[in-house]
């Protein structure tokens, strides 16, 4: 039931209007951040206001006129459309933008990061693009915002302006813009075959008239969107992009950017081809096979990563493939599991990235091998990490269990036991690369940590002293000999800070006072941070003083979201939206 409304346009316009305001307020950081938070709340409120009617079948549309008219088919309108699938993605991204905005204030000021104004402006541009991706009414409109999202996020990936960050940013653009070219080619093929690119419930019927062309277009579309979804072999940009500030990794690389890729694949499967055509053409099993290979391989690679953010990145590569696997299977239960894993993964993974960022800000610790006993210093952060990690592994009563249950049921329904086995094996691998982090944090002593790597040296981790390898020799994936852990890594941030105002910064990296490595002697700084030597170990902190609540608040919120999605998924709007989406999509078969 189409309803003419300005609301879809407003959801895109609010963060877009915030961009020039943020740039203009660069010298007034408190007001600048106020604009960011106001825009985040207003965007979420706009999207949330559409939910009741959308659940009842309404489709909000904003027609901005004809975009292309070729005479070969229907005119292509530049139209925004808030249907159930679009609202699912937009509601998730806009809600988590609120949490990430608060977190970003604590993180960016806690590290006294440079160019904070550019950072917040680029963040707003990225959210505006993500809203456009969610509400694009056809493949062309979706493609436009999909490409803008790639460009808008480049300054965030390359924010550090180091050689590594610039290289990662260029690689990110090369991959994602290349994927955009494939999407455009697939879109042209769809238009040539059917005369339309408009999304239709159950798919565009005329696509099945030429099976070979339809399969080729499907490969281009899914391959193009699969770049941002980090399907192998197009995944390597994602771990490299972890050089970006943690708030970028948290929202854009756990929600907006990577989820725009799986969202695009969902549009193709559900509303361009339709589940029936996907199964009839045989392309679904091929897609599920690629996803299965990706999720197992990425999990194995994650075992080798000592850097926490890189391990989380490879976990993301694996977890995104759960979604793609379900879309490829295209049975009702598998589709529910795939779409439910979008918000489930978002809440769990954003919690994990928030925790990694808080650890970095407070202790300057980035490697898992240096985190033995860190639960003493950051009890709330590591408890939230443990909850989210358990959810990622599919433990009951957490979000990951519910979505993976549906995926298992979907695989069994189709008599495809191999995919059920893959899902179970991946769950075991999730436990294998998350449990050591939790175990080290709470059950190991920093004075006598276990140096044994997850995979035997040299593939990754630390080498024990009796391996016969020289102590100071380089270690794969950032692993170091334990003898190096007493070396200073830099000054720690004041962990008793109540908020951003306690940090000596004007909010844009220009400050009158600064703390540098040369200001603090080795007697006061260790790799554990907090102003203590390695000999004294981690300082014990309570959950109220381990970090600023600008970071702790979002961590708790995201972790609670992961629990709620696992305990009462039927009472959360996401599952209700998803069930309606799948019911409508599977009503039409070809």
From TrEMBL:
The keyword Transmembrane helix applies. Residues 138-429 form the NADH:quinone oxidoreductase/Mrp antiporter transmembrane domain. Its main location: membrane. GO terms for cellular component: plasma membrane. InterPro entries: ComplexI-like_HydComp, ND/Mrp_TM. Keywords: Cell membrane, Membrane, Oxidoreductase, Transmembrane, Transmembrane helix. It is found in: Cell membrane. Residues 453-539 are annotated as: Disordered. PANTHER family: HYDROGENASE-4 COMPONENT F, NADH-UBIQUINONE_PLASTOQUINONE. This is Monovalent cation/H+ antiporter subunit D. It comes from Halovivax asiaticus JCM 14624.
């Amino acid at each position: 039931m189409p309803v003419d409304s300005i609301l879809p346009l407003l959801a895109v316009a609010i963060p877009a209007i915030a961009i020039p305001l943020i740039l203009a307020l660069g010298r007034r950081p408190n007001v600048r951040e106020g604009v960011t938070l106001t825009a985040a709340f207003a965007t979420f409120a706009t999207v949330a206001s559409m939910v009741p009617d959308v659940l009842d079948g309404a489709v909000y549309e904003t027609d901005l006129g004809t975009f292309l008219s070729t005479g070969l088919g229907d005119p292509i309108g530049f139209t925004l459309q808030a249907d159930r699938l679009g609202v699912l993605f937009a509601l998730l991204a806009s809600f988590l933008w609120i949490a990430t905005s608060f977190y970003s204030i604590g993180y960016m000021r806690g590290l006294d990061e440079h160019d904070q104004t550019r950072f917040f402006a680029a963040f707003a541009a990225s959210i505006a693009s993500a809203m456009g991706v969610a509400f694009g009414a056809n493949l062309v409109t979706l493609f436009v915002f999909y490409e803008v999202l790639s460009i808008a996020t480049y300054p965030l990936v390359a924010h550090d302006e180091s050689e590594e960050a610039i290289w990662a940013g260029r690689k990110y653009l090369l991959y994602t813009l290349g994927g955009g070219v494939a999407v455009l080619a697939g879109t042209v093929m769809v238009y040539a075959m059917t005369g339309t690119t408009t999304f239709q419930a159950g798919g565009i019927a005329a696509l099945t008239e030429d099976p070979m062309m339809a399969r080729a277009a499907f490969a281009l579309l899914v391959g193009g969107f699969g770049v941002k979804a980090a399907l192998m072999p197009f995944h390597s940009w994602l771990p490299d992009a972890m050089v970006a500030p943690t708030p970028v990794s948290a929202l854009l690389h756990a929600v907006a950017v990577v989820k725009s890729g799986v969202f695009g694949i969902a549009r193709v499967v559900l509303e361009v081809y339709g589940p029936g055509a996907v199964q009839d053409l045989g392309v679904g099993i091929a897609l599920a096979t690629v996803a299965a290979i990706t999720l197992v391989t990425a999990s194995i690679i994650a075992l080798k990563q000592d850097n926490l953010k890189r391990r989380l990145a490879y976990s993301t590569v694996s977890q995104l493939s759960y979604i793609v696997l379900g879309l490829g299977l295209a049975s009702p239960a598998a589709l529910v599991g795939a779409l439910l894993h979008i918000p489930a993964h978002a809440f769990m993974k954003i919690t994990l990235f928030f925790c990694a960022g808080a650890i970095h800000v407070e202790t300057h610790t980035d490697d898992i091998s240096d985190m033995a006993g860190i639960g003493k210093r950051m009890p709330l952060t590591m408890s939230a990490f443990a909850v989210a990690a358990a959810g990622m592994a599919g433990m009951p009563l957490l979000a990951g269990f519910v979505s993976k249950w549906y995926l298992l049921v979907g695989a069994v329904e189709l008599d495809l036991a191999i995919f059920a086995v893959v899902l179970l094996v991946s769950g075991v691998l999730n436990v294998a690369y998350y449990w050591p982090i939790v175990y080290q944090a709470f059950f190991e002593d920093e004075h006598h940590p276990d140096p044994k790597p997850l995979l035997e040296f040299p593939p990754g981790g630390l080498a024990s002293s009796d391996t016969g390898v020289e102590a100071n020799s380089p270690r794969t994936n950032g692993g170091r000999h334990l003898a190096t852990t007493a070396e200073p890594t830099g000054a720690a941030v004041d962990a008793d800070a109540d908020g951003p105002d306690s940090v000596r910064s004007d909010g844009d990296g220009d400050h009158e006072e600064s703390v540098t490595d040369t200001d603090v002697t080795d007697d006061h700084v260790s790799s554990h941070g907090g102003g203590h030597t390695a000999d004294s170990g981690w300082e014990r902190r309570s959950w109220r003083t381990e970090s600023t609540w600008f970071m702790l608040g979002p961590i708790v919120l995201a972790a609670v979201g992961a629990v709620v999605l696992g305990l009462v998924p039927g009472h959360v709007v996401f599952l209700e939206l998803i069930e309606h989406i799948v019911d409508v999509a599977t009503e039409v078969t070809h």
